[in-house]
Design brief:
alpha+beta; 28 strands; Signal recognition particle alu RNA binding heterodimer, srp9/1; BirA Bifunctional Protein, domain 2; Rossmann fold; nine-stranded mixed β-sheet
Length: 583
């Protein structure tokens, strides 16, 4: 049994996650989070908010998960959000075609359907289920379609990403941020994709949680004011050049920008913040790399794009975050579809003087000739370019009718204008996080096994900031004389906002093992010395060290430990007698 099977089994048994709808036979691509899994997920989301909402000052919004058709016409999801499919001619099983050739082509996403089918034929790739011949490759749109209201009049779709909610709210967000750049909005919420064959637990789901930020910046200046805070951080960059060599390159973010490996400071800054967040929730730096999209897989509108990839047992390298400079593609697309301007007026530091050639219709001549329509004719002439006005004859539209104007009635004048700013379409930096994949990654990278006195021990070594249970309260025995003080400790910790579990079932050793397995950082044991001397014992999950202290100090010491200050445990004298009872 590999780690994937062990973690999946542990997740089902201990209340982290399990397949949805089991009572009715289940459906692939849907998972429920149990009591521990839901808490782990929320704490990871809250850590994300600490990084991107609180520390960066981004605004969190919540938009509907159903969108009207026009949104997805503008975003390109109606025409281009599809996966290549192939089916077995014998057993009729359907597969994602590019996944069948991943062992042959490193990045099959860049291939056309015809090219994928050619690889299948040339390498005699057969149906994984029955070995039958595969059909030609065709496209399958991944969006869930629905109808809004009765009568099937309004077609809608379940959103395939949270990003579009930020784009279509751009005008209101701009006003909220007092019409100035840069600013950013975030969402954490459900997205939906009708995946073809989701067979990897929570790695590939049909309903999943995303955390996305859309950071709107001035395209003329892509430096970042806080880049100095991250420039000396070193990380594995799997750049386009490094992929040619087959090995990531360790360097600082300052070096990456200086050498042109990352396009600019602002993109590099948010890659660095992503890196810091992933480490904070428990992703192993040894099994994490940032891979740059190759030129043949880079979206046509992207200036640069980096995926955070993690190495998982059984599954290999999996993308969990994408950080991209999407340029002005999204705002321009929605402006064109909605016919609403999505620009920002940017003020110059100093006004700029520019010469401008302006059109001057001869109103003295136009008035008698066109009478009440003279003003309309003049406005139409002013709206035309100089090139269009220099022909042998000039035609303008007045009241839907063409009107010919003698060129002698139009003159030109050079004027000097004072320009105080200009309308620009912001560029967008987008970090997009797959929360479910991060939850599984944290479990995978935290999973540890050892043997203690001949007995196997499974441990989830969660960081204390994301562990679903902070502290377990364990009376040495399930007797009233120990239960009462144990419940008092339980209530005291809960009143301070500490997540506490209470367990009296089985021997103290078994209870320690259960809490190790679900990742509880600390156990507090209440025994007869609690009654006689007013002491309790703290046990550390990772080292299994046990230290006795006065019960009055317990809350303060636990708060220090959960904040990462381990000086009490490191200085404390181990409780040998009680530790022996764990065996």
């Amino acid at each position: 049994m590999d780690n994937y099977e062990k973690i999946t089994e542990l997740g089902r048994r201990r209340g982290f996650m399990w397949p949805a709808f089991e009572l009715y036979g289940g459906a692939a691509g849907f998972y429920d989070y149990g009591p521990l899994g839901a808490t782990l997920k929320r704490r990871i989301e809250d850590t994300w908010r600490q990084f991107f909402v609180i520390q960066e000052g981004f605004a969190e919004i919540e938009a509907p998960t159903i969108g009207v058709e026009g949104i997805f016409q503008a975003s390109g999801h109606l025409s281009g959000f599809s996966d290549p499919l192939t089916g077995c001619k014998e057993c009729k099983e359907v597969y994602r075609a590019d996944h069948l050739i991943k062992h042959i082509i490193e990045v099959p996403d860049a291939l056309s359907n015809e090219e994928i089918y050619k690889v299948i034929q040339e390498n005699e790739v057969a149906c994984p289920e029955c070995g039958g011949e595969l059909s030609e490759v065709y496209e399958f749109n991944l969006m869930f379609k629905t109808m809004i209201g009765p009568g099937n009049k309004t077609q809608g779709y379940l959103r395939p990403e949270t990003a579009q909610g930020m784009f279509i709210n751009f005008p209101r967000l701009l006003r909220y941020f007092r019409d100035s750049l840069p600013f950013a909005a975030v969402q954490i919420g459900k997205s939906y994709r009708n995946e073809i064959s989701p067979r990897q637990g929570v790695i590939r789901l049909r309903e999943f949680t995303q955390a996305e930020a859309e950071i709107f910046i001035d395209p003329r200046d892509k430096t970042h004011p806080k880049f100095d805070q991250v420039k000396d951080i070193s990380m594995k960059f799997y750049s386009q050049a490094a992929q040619e060599k087959g090995e990531p390159e360790e360097m600082t973010f300052g070096e990456a920008v200086g050498r042109g490996i990352v396009a600019h400071q602002t993109l590099a800054y948010y890659v660095a913040r992503t890196y810091q967040f992933l480490l904070a929730v428990g992703v192993s730096p040894e099994r994490l790399r940032f891979r740059q999209h190759k030129s043949d897989e880079m979206a046509h509108y992207a200036a640069d794009c980096w995926d955070a990839e993690v190495l998982l047992d059984h599954l290999g390298w999996i993308e969990i975050v994408g950080v991209a400079d999407r340029t002005d593609y999204d705002l321009k697309a929605h402006a064109a579809q909605s016919k609403v301007s999505l620009t920002v007026f940017v003020h110059y530091d100093q006004p700029v003087k520019r010469k401008k050639l302006v059109v001057k219709p001869d109103m003295k001549a136009l008035g008698p000739r066109f009478k009440g329509q003279a003003k309309t004719v003049a406005e139409a002439l002013k709206a035309m370019s100089v090139e269009d006005l220099k022909g042998d004859k000039i035609i303008v539209q007045v009241g839907g009718e063409p009107v010919e104007i003698d060129p002698s009635l139009v003159s030109y004048e050079t004027v000097v204008e004072e320009i105080r700013g200009e309308e620009i379409v912001p560029h967008v930096i987008e970090p997009s996080f797959g929360i479910d994949r991060i939850v599984y990654t944290v479990m995978d990278h935290s999973f540890y096994e050892d043997v203690v006195d001949g007995e196997p021990r499974s441990v989830l070594k969660f960081n204390s900031k994301v562990a679903p249970v902070d502290v377990a309260i364990l009376p040495l025995m399930d007797r009233d004389v120990l239960v009462k003080p144990s419940k008092a400790v339980l209530d005291g910790l809960r009143s301070r906002g500490i997540r506490v579990d209470y367990d009296t079932s089985g021997s103290i050793g078994r209870r320690y093992r259960r809490n190790d397995e679900v990742g509880t950082p600390y156990c507090v044991t209440i025994d007869y010395e609690t009654l006689e001397q007013g002491t309790v014992t703290i046990r550390d999950r990772d080292s299994m060290k046990q230290v006795k202290l006065d019960a009055q100090r317990l809350i303060g010491v636990l708060e220090e430990l959960l904040a990462g200050d381990r000086k009490f445990l490191d200085a404390g004298v181990p409780v040998v007698a009680l530790a022996a009872k764990e065996q």
